[in-house]
Amino acid sequence: MSDEIKLSAEGKDLLEDASNYDGSKYRKALNTVDICICRIYEKKLQVLLVKRKYPPFKDKWAICGGFVDINKDEGMMDAAKRELFEETGVKGVSVRQLGTYGDDPKRDPRDRVITTVYFALLSPEQADAQIIKPGDDARETKWFNISKSSDLAFDHGIILRDLKKHLRSGIQYEPFAFELVSKKFTWLQLREAYETILGKELIAQNFPRDIKRRFLVEELEEFKAEGRGKPARLINFKKAISMF
Amino acid sequence: MSDEIKLSAEGKDLLEDASNYDGSKYRKALNTVDICICRIYEKKLQVLLVKRKYPPFKDKWAICGGFVDINKDEGMMDAAKRELFEETGVKGVSVRQLGTYGDDPKRDPRDRVITTVYFALLSPEQADAQIIKPGDDARETKWFNISKSSDLAFDHGIILRDLKKHLRSGIQYEPFAFELVSKKFTWLQLREAYETILGKELIAQNFPRDIKRRFLVEELEEFKAEGRGKPARLINFKKAISMF
DNA sequence: ATAATAGTGTCTGTAAGACATTATGTG
DNA sequence: CACATAATGTCTTACAGACACTATTAT
Predict the structure, then answer these.
(1) Phi/psi of residue B56, nearest 5 degrees
(2) Contact between chains at B110 and A5 (C-beta distance less than 8 A)
Protein backbone atom coordinates (compact mmCIF):
# COMPACT_ATOMS: atom_id res chain seq x y z
CA MET A 1 0.00 0.00 0.00
CA SER A 2 1.70 3.08 -1.09
CA ASP A 3 0.23 6.34 -1.79
CA GLU A 4 -2.69 8.42 -2.68
CA ILE A 5 -6.17 7.94 -3.92
CA LYS A 6 -8.66 10.72 -4.43
CA LEU A 7 -12.31 10.15 -4.92
CA SER A 8 -13.90 12.46 -7.44
CA ALA A 9 -17.50 13.64 -7.17
CA GLU A 10 -18.84 10.85 -9.37
CA GLY A 11 -17.27 8.22 -7.17
CA LYS A 12 -14.71 7.42 -9.81
CA ASP A 13 -11.39 6.74 -8.22
CA LEU A 14 -8.27 8.51 -9.24
CA LEU A 15 -4.80 7.65 -8.33
CA GLU A 16 -2.28 10.26 -7.47
CA ASP A 17 0.76 9.00 -5.72
CA ALA A 18 4.17 10.31 -4.99
CA SER A 19 5.69 8.71 -8.07
CA ASN A 20 3.49 10.70 -10.45
CA TYR A 21 1.13 7.94 -11.40
CA ASP A 22 -1.13 9.12 -14.21
CA GLY A 23 -4.54 9.12 -12.61
CA SER A 24 -6.49 10.16 -15.68
CA LYS A 25 -5.69 7.02 -17.59
CA TYR A 26 -6.38 4.88 -14.56
CA ARG A 27 -8.14 1.61 -15.07
CA LYS A 28 -9.06 -1.08 -12.58
CA ALA A 29 -9.03 -4.84 -12.64
CA LEU A 30 -11.94 -7.05 -11.78
CA ASN A 31 -11.68 -9.08 -8.61
CA THR A 32 -13.14 -12.52 -8.44
CA VAL A 33 -13.00 -15.31 -5.92
CA ASP A 34 -12.77 -18.94 -6.88
CA ILE A 35 -13.61 -21.65 -4.42
CA CYS A 36 -12.28 -25.15 -4.87
CA ILE A 37 -14.98 -27.27 -3.29
CA CYS A 38 -13.43 -30.62 -2.49
CA ARG A 39 -14.57 -33.99 -1.28
CA ILE A 40 -13.22 -37.51 -1.21
CA TYR A 41 -15.15 -40.02 -3.27
CA GLU A 42 -14.05 -43.60 -3.80
CA LYS A 43 -10.58 -42.78 -2.52
CA LYS A 44 -10.15 -39.95 -5.01
CA LEU A 45 -9.92 -36.26 -4.23
CA GLN A 46 -12.65 -34.56 -6.19
CA VAL A 47 -13.51 -30.96 -6.92
CA LEU A 48 -16.88 -29.54 -7.91
CA LEU A 49 -16.63 -27.88 -11.30
CA VAL A 50 -19.18 -25.83 -13.18
CA LYS A 51 -19.75 -25.85 -16.92
CA ARG A 52 -19.41 -22.40 -18.43
CA LYS A 53 -22.43 -21.24 -20.39
CA TYR A 54 -20.83 -18.24 -22.07
CA PRO A 55 -17.56 -17.42 -23.77
CA PRO A 56 -14.72 -17.34 -23.19
CA PHE A 57 -14.14 -21.02 -22.55
CA LYS A 58 -17.79 -21.73 -23.32
CA ASP A 59 -18.69 -25.31 -22.40
CA LYS A 60 -15.39 -25.78 -20.61
CA TRP A 61 -15.40 -26.77 -16.96
CA ALA A 62 -14.25 -24.27 -14.37
CA ILE A 63 -13.74 -23.93 -10.65
CA CYS A 64 -16.76 -22.39 -8.90
CA GLY A 65 -16.49 -18.71 -8.34
CA GLY A 66 -17.73 -15.27 -9.06
CA PHE A 67 -17.25 -11.60 -8.56
CA VAL A 68 -16.66 -9.98 -5.24
CA ASP A 69 -19.60 -7.68 -4.63
CA ILE A 70 -17.77 -4.42 -4.07
CA ASN A 71 -21.05 -2.51 -4.04
CA LYS A 72 -22.19 -4.39 -0.98
CA ASP A 73 -18.80 -4.11 0.72
CA GLU A 74 -18.46 -7.84 0.56
CA GLY A 75 -15.27 -9.28 2.05
CA MET A 76 -13.19 -11.63 -0.08
CA MET A 77 -13.66 -14.66 2.11
CA ASP A 78 -17.33 -13.82 2.54
CA ALA A 79 -17.65 -13.88 -1.24
CA ALA A 80 -15.97 -17.29 -1.31
CA LYS A 81 -18.35 -18.56 1.36
CA ARG A 82 -21.31 -17.15 -0.51
CA GLU A 83 -20.23 -18.94 -3.67
CA LEU A 84 -19.83 -22.12 -1.68
CA PHE A 85 -23.35 -21.74 -0.32
CA GLU A 86 -24.82 -20.91 -3.71
CA GLU A 87 -23.32 -24.01 -5.28
CA THR A 88 -23.84 -26.51 -2.50
CA GLY A 89 -26.14 -25.10 0.17
CA VAL A 90 -23.38 -25.76 2.68
CA LYS A 91 -22.65 -23.25 5.44
CA GLY A 92 -20.32 -23.15 8.40
CA VAL A 93 -17.42 -24.88 6.70
CA SER A 94 -13.92 -23.59 7.17
CA VAL A 95 -12.68 -21.84 4.05
CA ARG A 96 -8.98 -21.19 3.50
CA GLN A 97 -7.05 -19.06 1.07
CA LEU A 98 -4.86 -20.79 -1.49
CA GLY A 99 -3.47 -17.77 -3.29
CA THR A 100 -4.09 -15.04 -5.80
CA TYR A 101 -3.65 -15.51 -9.53
CA GLY A 102 -3.04 -12.30 -11.34
CA ASP A 103 0.31 -12.57 -13.07
CA ASP A 104 -0.91 -13.15 -16.59
CA PRO A 105 -2.96 -10.14 -17.70
CA LYS A 106 -4.56 -12.34 -20.34
CA ARG A 107 -5.65 -15.16 -18.07
CA ASP A 108 -9.14 -13.92 -18.84
CA PRO A 109 -8.99 -12.84 -22.50
CA ARG A 110 -11.81 -10.30 -22.12
CA ASP A 111 -10.46 -8.09 -19.41
CA ARG A 112 -8.00 -7.91 -16.57
CA VAL A 113 -9.31 -10.26 -13.91
CA ILE A 114 -7.50 -11.01 -10.68
CA THR A 115 -8.80 -14.01 -8.83
CA THR A 116 -8.19 -15.02 -5.27
CA VAL A 117 -8.61 -18.72 -4.79
CA TYR A 118 -10.03 -20.32 -1.67
CA PHE A 119 -10.77 -23.93 -0.90
CA ALA A 120 -13.27 -25.80 1.24
CA LEU A 121 -13.07 -29.42 2.30
CA LEU A 122 -16.44 -31.15 2.63
CA SER A 123 -17.36 -34.28 4.51
CA PRO A 124 -19.29 -36.92 2.54
CA GLU A 125 -22.50 -35.76 4.24
CA GLN A 126 -21.90 -32.12 3.34
CA ALA A 127 -21.04 -33.03 -0.22
CA ASP A 128 -24.16 -35.17 -0.57
CA ALA A 129 -26.41 -32.49 0.88
CA GLN A 130 -25.78 -30.52 -2.29
CA ILE A 131 -28.89 -28.60 -3.11
CA ILE A 132 -30.16 -27.92 -6.62
CA LYS A 133 -31.97 -24.72 -5.96
CA PRO A 134 -35.38 -24.40 -7.63
CA GLY A 135 -35.65 -21.52 -10.07
CA ASP A 136 -31.93 -21.67 -10.53
CA ASP A 137 -31.11 -21.28 -14.17
CA ALA A 138 -29.61 -24.73 -14.09
CA ARG A 139 -25.90 -24.19 -13.71
CA GLU A 140 -24.46 -27.53 -14.54
CA THR A 141 -22.04 -28.72 -11.88
CA LYS A 142 -20.22 -32.01 -11.57
CA TRP A 143 -17.62 -33.64 -9.37
CA PHE A 144 -14.28 -34.35 -11.05
CA ASN A 145 -11.25 -36.22 -9.86
CA ILE A 146 -8.83 -33.42 -9.20
CA SER A 147 -5.95 -35.22 -10.91
CA LYS A 148 -7.73 -35.91 -14.16
CA SER A 149 -9.24 -32.50 -14.59
CA SER A 150 -7.34 -31.14 -17.56
CA ASP A 151 -8.47 -28.79 -20.29
CA LEU A 152 -10.21 -26.48 -17.85
CA ALA A 153 -11.19 -22.87 -18.39
CA PHE A 154 -8.70 -20.07 -17.67
CA ASP A 155 -5.68 -21.17 -15.63
CA HIS A 156 -7.80 -23.44 -13.50
CA GLY A 157 -5.68 -26.47 -14.30
CA ILE A 158 -2.69 -24.75 -12.72
CA ILE A 159 -4.74 -23.72 -9.72
CA LEU A 160 -5.85 -27.29 -9.03
CA ARG A 161 -2.28 -28.50 -9.36
CA ASP A 162 -1.22 -25.90 -6.82
CA LEU A 163 -4.07 -26.92 -4.54
CA LYS A 164 -3.02 -30.56 -4.61
CA LYS A 165 0.50 -29.56 -3.64
CA HIS A 166 -0.77 -27.28 -0.89
CA LEU A 167 -2.98 -29.96 0.62
CA ARG A 168 -0.20 -32.52 0.51
CA SER A 169 2.38 -30.37 2.19
CA GLY A 170 -0.04 -28.95 4.76
CA ILE A 171 -1.75 -32.14 5.87
CA GLN A 172 0.91 -32.93 8.46
CA TYR A 173 0.03 -30.02 10.68
CA GLU A 174 -3.34 -28.81 9.43
CA PRO A 175 -6.49 -30.82 10.07
CA PHE A 176 -7.38 -31.14 6.38
CA ALA A 177 -8.18 -34.84 6.56
CA PHE A 178 -10.53 -34.39 9.52
CA GLU A 179 -12.69 -32.04 7.47
CA LEU A 180 -12.95 -34.53 4.63
CA VAL A 181 -14.47 -37.28 6.80
CA SER A 182 -17.68 -37.42 8.82
CA LYS A 183 -17.82 -35.80 12.25
CA LYS A 184 -17.54 -39.25 13.79
CA PHE A 185 -15.09 -41.32 11.81
CA THR A 186 -13.09 -44.52 11.99
CA TRP A 187 -9.32 -44.79 11.79
CA LEU A 188 -9.75 -46.45 8.43
CA GLN A 189 -11.73 -43.54 7.04
CA LEU A 190 -9.24 -40.99 8.31
CA ARG A 191 -6.32 -43.00 7.02
CA GLU A 192 -7.92 -43.27 3.59
CA ALA A 193 -8.30 -39.48 3.56
CA TYR A 194 -4.58 -39.17 4.29
CA GLU A 195 -3.70 -41.75 1.68
CA THR A 196 -5.80 -39.95 -0.89
CA ILE A 197 -4.14 -36.61 -0.30
CA LEU A 198 -0.63 -37.99 0.07
CA GLY A 199 -1.03 -40.34 -2.88
CA LYS A 200 0.52 -43.27 -1.09
CA GLU A 201 -0.48 -46.02 1.31
CA LEU A 202 0.20 -45.72 5.01
CA ILE A 203 0.79 -48.52 7.46
CA ALA A 204 -2.58 -49.05 9.13
CA GLN A 205 -1.25 -50.21 12.48
CA ASN A 206 0.98 -47.20 12.97
CA PHE A 207 -1.54 -44.66 11.81
CA PRO A 208 -3.41 -43.94 15.10
CA ARG A 209 -0.11 -43.62 16.93
CA ASP A 210 1.24 -41.08 14.44
CA ILE A 211 -1.98 -39.04 14.33
CA LYS A 212 -2.21 -38.81 18.11
CA ARG A 213 1.18 -37.16 18.18
CA ARG A 214 -0.06 -34.17 16.20
CA PHE A 215 -3.78 -34.06 16.95
CA LEU A 216 -5.95 -34.49 19.99
CA VAL A 217 -8.75 -36.96 19.28
CA GLU A 218 -11.44 -38.55 21.38
CA GLU A 219 -11.93 -42.30 21.00
CA LEU A 220 -15.65 -42.88 21.54
CA GLU A 221 -17.37 -45.92 22.98
CA GLU A 222 -19.31 -46.23 19.76
CA PHE A 223 -18.60 -48.72 17.03
CA LYS A 224 -19.67 -49.06 13.48
CA ALA A 225 -19.66 -52.24 11.41
CA GLU A 226 -18.65 -51.56 7.84
CA GLY A 227 -19.68 -54.87 6.26
CA ARG A 228 -17.95 -57.91 7.71
CA GLY A 229 -15.17 -57.93 10.23
CA LYS A 230 -14.83 -56.37 13.65
CA PRO A 231 -16.73 -53.08 13.95
CA ALA A 232 -14.42 -50.09 14.14
CA ARG A 233 -14.33 -47.57 16.93
CA LEU A 234 -15.60 -44.08 16.12
CA ILE A 235 -13.32 -41.13 16.70
CA ASN A 236 -13.94 -37.45 17.25
CA PHE A 237 -11.51 -34.73 16.29
CA LYS A 238 -10.71 -32.33 19.10
CA LYS A 239 -7.86 -30.07 18.04
CA ALA A 240 -4.44 -29.82 16.53
CA ILE A 241 -1.48 -29.91 18.88
CA SER A 242 0.52 -26.79 18.09
CA MET A 243 4.11 -27.43 17.17
CA PHE A 244 5.32 -24.12 18.60
CA MET B 1 -14.50 -17.26 -11.89
CA SER B 2 -18.11 -17.47 -12.74
CA ASP B 3 -19.79 -15.76 -15.52
CA GLU B 4 -20.03 -12.94 -17.86
CA ILE B 5 -18.39 -9.63 -18.47
CA LYS B 6 -19.20 -7.34 -21.33
CA LEU B 7 -17.04 -4.50 -22.36
CA SER B 8 -18.96 -1.46 -23.41
CA ALA B 9 -17.74 0.95 -26.08
CA GLU B 10 -16.09 3.26 -23.59
CA GLY B 11 -14.08 0.41 -22.13
CA LYS B 12 -16.14 0.46 -18.98
CA ASP B 13 -16.71 -3.04 -17.78
CA LEU B 14 -20.11 -4.35 -17.05
CA LEU B 15 -20.96 -7.48 -15.27
CA GLU B 16 -23.75 -9.68 -16.41
CA ASP B 17 -23.71 -13.15 -15.01
CA ALA B 18 -26.16 -15.97 -14.71
CA SER B 19 -27.28 -14.91 -11.25
CA ASN B 20 -28.62 -11.55 -12.46
CA TYR B 21 -25.84 -9.43 -11.11
CA ASP B 22 -26.77 -5.76 -11.42
CA GLY B 23 -24.20 -4.49 -13.86
CA SER B 24 -25.33 -0.88 -13.81
CA LYS B 25 -24.37 -0.37 -10.19
CA TYR B 26 -21.10 -2.17 -10.69
CA ARG B 27 -18.05 -0.83 -8.96
CA LYS B 28 -14.51 -2.14 -8.81
CA ALA B 29 -11.94 -2.39 -6.10
CA LEU B 30 -8.38 -1.14 -6.32
CA ASN B 31 -5.62 -3.71 -6.44
CA THR B 32 -2.34 -3.06 -4.77
CA VAL B 33 0.71 -5.14 -4.06
CA ASP B 34 2.71 -4.89 -0.88
CA ILE B 35 6.20 -6.25 -0.65
CA CYS B 36 7.73 -7.12 2.69
CA ILE B 37 11.42 -6.52 2.10
CA CYS B 38 13.28 -8.44 4.77
CA ARG B 39 16.82 -8.76 5.98
CA ILE B 40 18.59 -10.00 9.06
CA TYR B 41 20.46 -7.38 11.01
CA GLU B 42 22.13 -8.03 14.33
CA LYS B 43 20.26 -11.31 14.70
CA LYS B 44 16.90 -9.63 14.23
CA LEU B 45 14.55 -10.07 11.31
CA GLN B 46 13.94 -6.64 9.87
CA VAL B 47 11.54 -5.24 7.32
CA LEU B 48 11.91 -2.08 5.27
CA LEU B 49 9.03 0.28 6.02
CA VAL B 50 8.12 3.56 4.38
CA LYS B 51 6.72 6.61 6.10
CA ARG B 52 3.42 7.70 4.62
CA LYS B 53 3.34 11.28 3.43
CA TYR B 54 -0.40 11.59 2.94
CA PRO B 55 -3.54 10.59 4.80
CA PRO B 56 -4.88 8.19 5.73
CA PHE B 57 -2.33 7.06 8.27
CA LYS B 58 -0.18 10.10 7.49
CA ASP B 59 3.24 9.81 9.13
CA LYS B 60 2.60 6.19 10.04
CA TRP B 61 4.97 3.52 8.80
CA ALA B 62 3.79 1.08 6.19
CA ILE B 63 4.99 -1.90 4.21
CA CYS B 64 6.36 -0.92 0.79
CA GLY B 65 3.88 -1.24 -2.00
CA GLY B 66 1.80 0.41 -4.61
CA PHE B 67 -0.81 -0.02 -7.26
CA VAL B 68 -0.73 -2.67 -9.90
CA ASP B 69 -0.47 -0.88 -13.22
CA ILE B 70 -3.50 -2.33 -14.97
CA ASN B 71 -3.06 0.08 -17.88
CA LYS B 72 0.30 -1.42 -18.68
CA ASP B 73 -0.94 -4.98 -18.22
CA GLU B 74 1.41 -5.38 -15.33
CA GLY B 75 1.39 -8.76 -13.61
CA MET B 76 0.94 -8.89 -9.87
CA MET B 77 4.33 -10.34 -9.09
CA ASP B 78 5.94 -8.00 -11.62
CA ALA B 79 4.41 -5.12 -9.71
CA ALA B 80 5.86 -6.48 -6.48
CA LYS B 81 9.28 -6.84 -8.11
CA ARG B 82 9.01 -3.32 -9.49
CA GLU B 83 8.23 -1.96 -6.04
CA LEU B 84 11.17 -3.89 -4.67
CA PHE B 85 13.44 -2.40 -7.28
CA GLU B 86 12.10 1.12 -6.76
CA GLU B 87 12.73 0.96 -3.03
CA THR B 88 16.05 -0.85 -2.99
CA GLY B 89 17.52 -1.03 -6.48
CA VAL B 90 17.65 -4.80 -6.07
CA LYS B 91 16.76 -7.10 -8.95
CA GLY B 92 16.77 -10.82 -9.51
CA VAL B 93 15.66 -11.76 -6.04
CA SER B 94 13.07 -14.44 -5.56
CA VAL B 95 9.72 -12.93 -4.56
CA ARG B 96 7.01 -15.09 -3.02
CA GLN B 97 3.35 -14.54 -2.35
CA LEU B 98 2.19 -14.38 1.25
CA GLY B 99 -1.52 -13.85 0.72
CA THR B 100 -4.25 -11.44 -0.17
CA TYR B 101 -5.89 -9.14 2.32
CA GLY B 102 -9.32 -8.06 1.28
CA ASP B 103 -11.74 -9.20 3.95
CA ASP B 104 -12.29 -5.89 5.65
CA PRO B 105 -13.81 -3.43 3.17
CA LYS B 106 -12.63 -0.60 5.39
CA ARG B 107 -9.01 -1.65 5.67
CA ASP B 108 -8.34 1.41 3.59
CA PRO B 109 -10.85 3.99 4.85
CA ARG B 110 -10.96 5.88 1.53
CA ASP B 111 -11.99 3.17 -0.85
CA ARG B 112 -12.13 -0.53 -1.34
CA VAL B 113 -8.56 -1.70 -1.68
CA ILE B 114 -7.50 -5.31 -2.03
CA THR B 115 -3.84 -5.93 -1.49
CA THR B 116 -1.80 -8.96 -2.38
CA VAL B 117 1.25 -9.26 -0.21
CA TYR B 118 4.59 -10.60 -1.38
CA PHE B 119 7.87 -10.91 0.42
CA ALA B 120 11.53 -10.83 -0.54
CA LEU B 121 14.46 -12.01 1.54
CA LEU B 122 17.65 -10.02 1.02
CA SER B 123 21.20 -10.95 1.81
CA PRO B 124 23.21 -8.41 3.82
CA GLU B 125 24.91 -7.31 0.59
CA GLN B 126 21.63 -6.79 -1.23
CA ALA B 127 20.18 -4.92 1.71
CA ASP B 128 23.21 -2.66 1.95
CA ALA B 129 23.20 -1.91 -1.77
CA GLN B 130 20.04 0.07 -1.20
CA ILE B 131 20.01 3.00 -3.57
CA ILE B 132 18.62 6.40 -2.80
CA LYS B 133 17.68 7.46 -6.29
CA PRO B 134 18.45 11.06 -7.19
CA GLY B 135 15.44 13.16 -8.06
CA ASP B 136 13.32 10.88 -5.99
CA ASP B 137 10.90 12.88 -3.93
CA ALA B 138 12.58 11.52 -0.86
CA ARG B 139 10.37 8.74 0.33
CA GLU B 140 11.56 8.08 3.81
CA THR B 141 12.31 4.42 4.39
CA LYS B 142 13.78 2.68 7.39
CA TRP B 143 14.53 -0.83 8.60
CA PHE B 144 12.43 -2.00 11.55
CA ASN B 145 12.64 -5.11 13.66
CA ILE B 146 9.68 -7.06 12.45
CA SER B 147 8.60 -7.98 15.97
CA LYS B 148 8.54 -4.49 17.35
CA SER B 149 6.76 -2.88 14.45
CA SER B 150 3.41 -2.00 15.95
CA ASP B 151 1.11 0.93 15.20
CA LEU B 152 1.54 0.57 11.47
CA ALA B 153 -0.71 1.91 8.74
CA PHE B 154 -3.69 -0.13 7.55
CA ASP B 155 -3.63 -3.78 8.65
CA HIS B 156 0.11 -3.98 8.14
CA GLY B 157 0.71 -5.13 11.70
CA ILE B 158 -1.40 -8.20 11.04
CA ILE B 159 0.40 -8.84 7.76
CA LEU B 160 3.81 -8.81 9.41
CA ARG B 161 2.55 -11.16 12.12
CA ASP B 162 1.34 -13.52 9.41
CA LEU B 163 4.66 -13.23 7.60
CA LYS B 164 6.61 -14.18 10.71
CA LYS B 165 4.44 -17.26 11.13
CA HIS B 166 4.80 -18.14 7.45
CA LEU B 167 8.58 -17.88 7.53
CA ARG B 168 8.80 -19.93 10.70
CA SER B 169 6.64 -22.78 9.47
CA GLY B 170 8.16 -22.80 5.99
CA ILE B 171 11.83 -22.64 6.85
CA GLN B 172 12.14 -26.41 7.26
CA TYR B 173 11.60 -27.16 3.60
CA GLU B 174 11.99 -23.82 1.84
CA PRO B 175 15.42 -22.23 1.46
CA PHE B 176 14.44 -19.01 3.24
CA ALA B 177 17.56 -18.87 5.39
CA PHE B 178 19.89 -19.30 2.41
CA GLU B 179 18.47 -16.16 0.84
CA LEU B 180 19.05 -14.14 3.98
CA VAL B 181 22.80 -14.84 4.05
CA SER B 182 25.55 -14.07 1.59
CA LYS B 183 26.06 -16.28 -1.44
CA LYS B 184 29.03 -17.83 0.30
CA PHE B 185 28.26 -18.27 3.97
CA THR B 186 29.51 -20.05 7.06
CA TRP B 187 27.57 -22.55 9.11
CA LEU B 188 27.42 -19.97 11.88
CA GLN B 189 25.82 -17.40 9.61
CA LEU B 190 23.25 -19.83 8.32
CA ARG B 191 22.49 -21.10 11.80
CA GLU B 192 21.96 -17.56 13.05
CA ALA B 193 19.49 -17.00 10.22
CA TYR B 194 17.59 -20.08 11.34
CA GLU B 195 17.72 -19.01 14.96
CA THR B 196 16.41 -15.59 14.08
CA ILE B 197 13.44 -16.91 12.19
CA LEU B 198 12.68 -19.74 14.59
CA GLY B 199 13.18 -17.53 17.63
CA LYS B 200 15.24 -20.11 19.49
CA GLU B 201 18.81 -21.32 19.67
CA LEU B 202 19.93 -24.41 17.82
CA ILE B 203 22.70 -26.80 18.77
CA ALA B 204 25.67 -25.69 16.70
CA GLN B 205 27.30 -29.11 16.31
CA ASN B 206 24.17 -30.77 14.98
CA PHE B 207 23.26 -27.98 12.63
CA PRO B 208 25.26 -28.97 9.51
CA ARG B 209 24.08 -32.54 9.84
CA ASP B 210 20.42 -31.51 9.99
CA ILE B 211 20.68 -29.04 7.10
CA LYS B 212 22.38 -31.57 4.85
CA ARG B 213 19.39 -33.85 5.23
CA ARG B 214 17.07 -31.35 3.57
CA PHE B 215 19.36 -29.29 1.37
CA LEU B 216 22.23 -29.96 -0.95
CA VAL B 217 25.18 -27.71 -0.14
CA GLU B 218 28.73 -27.45 -1.37
CA GLU B 219 31.44 -27.12 1.24
CA LEU B 220 34.12 -24.97 -0.36
CA GLU B 221 37.86 -25.02 0.22
CA GLU B 222 37.65 -21.39 1.23
CA PHE B 223 37.78 -20.14 4.78
CA LYS B 224 36.98 -16.88 6.41
CA ALA B 225 38.30 -15.65 9.75
CA GLU B 226 35.62 -13.77 11.66
CA GLY B 227 37.82 -12.18 14.35
CA ARG B 228 39.62 -14.66 16.56
CA GLY B 229 39.25 -18.42 16.48
CA LYS B 230 39.56 -20.96 13.72
CA PRO B 231 38.45 -19.60 10.36
CA ALA B 232 35.15 -21.06 9.22
CA ARG B 233 34.60 -22.93 6.01
CA LEU B 234 32.47 -21.23 3.38
CA ILE B 235 29.42 -23.01 2.06
CA ASN B 236 27.42 -22.67 -1.13
CA PHE B 237 23.75 -23.48 -1.41
CA LYS B 238 22.91 -25.86 -4.24
CA LYS B 239 19.28 -26.90 -3.96
CA ALA B 240 16.56 -28.19 -1.71
CA ILE B 241 16.10 -31.93 -1.52
CA SER B 242 12.47 -32.53 -2.40
CA MET B 243 10.57 -34.45 0.21
CA PHE B 244 8.23 -36.07 -2.30
C1' DA C 1 50.37 -20.55 26.14
C1' DT C 2 45.61 -19.13 26.21
C1' DA C 3 41.32 -17.86 24.56
C1' DA C 4 38.10 -18.37 21.03
C1' DT C 5 35.73 -20.38 17.50
C1' DA C 6 35.33 -24.45 14.06
C1' DG C 7 34.59 -29.04 13.40
C1' DT C 8 34.23 -34.30 14.64
C1' DG C 9 32.59 -38.24 17.19
C1' DT C 10 29.48 -40.60 19.92
C1' DC C 11 25.78 -41.58 23.12
C1' DT C 12 20.87 -41.53 24.05
C1' DG C 13 15.99 -41.00 23.65
C1' DT C 14 12.21 -40.47 20.55
C1' DA C 15 9.85 -41.03 16.29
C1' DA C 16 8.93 -43.74 12.21
C1' DG C 17 8.76 -48.03 9.43
C1' DA C 18 7.63 -52.87 9.31
C1' DC C 19 5.63 -56.89 10.73
C1' DA C 20 3.52 -60.47 14.05
C1' DT C 21 -0.13 -61.44 16.95
C1' DT C 22 -4.45 -61.07 19.28
C1' DA C 23 -9.37 -59.48 19.48
C1' DT C 24 -14.00 -59.35 17.88
C1' DG C 25 -17.27 -59.00 14.87
C1' DT C 26 -20.19 -61.21 10.31
C1' DG C 27 -21.82 -64.93 7.14
C1' DC D 1 -16.19 -72.41 12.13
C1' DA D 2 -14.03 -69.62 8.54
C1' DC D 3 -13.14 -65.18 7.30
C1' DA D 4 -12.49 -60.29 7.60
C1' DT D 5 -11.31 -56.30 9.75
C1' DA D 6 -9.80 -53.87 14.15
C1' DA D 7 -6.55 -53.28 17.60
C1' DT D 8 -2.29 -54.23 20.18
C1' DG D 9 2.55 -55.37 20.79
C1' DT D 10 7.28 -55.39 19.61
C1' DC D 11 11.37 -55.19 16.83
C1' DT D 12 14.27 -52.37 13.90
C1' DT D 13 15.95 -48.27 11.80
C1' DA D 14 16.36 -43.34 11.28
C1' DC D 15 16.47 -38.93 13.20
C1' DA D 16 17.12 -35.36 16.78
C1' DG D 17 19.01 -33.61 21.12
C1' DA D 18 22.95 -33.29 23.98
C1' DC D 19 27.57 -33.23 25.11
C1' DA D 20 32.70 -34.48 25.01
C1' DC D 21 36.56 -33.88 22.52
C1' DT D 22 39.83 -32.37 18.81
C1' DA D 23 41.50 -28.75 15.45
C1' DT D 24 43.07 -24.31 14.05
C1' DT D 25 43.56 -19.63 14.34
C1' DA D 26 44.52 -14.68 16.83
C1' DT D 27 46.57 -12.41 20.65
Answers:
(1) -75, 165
(2) yes
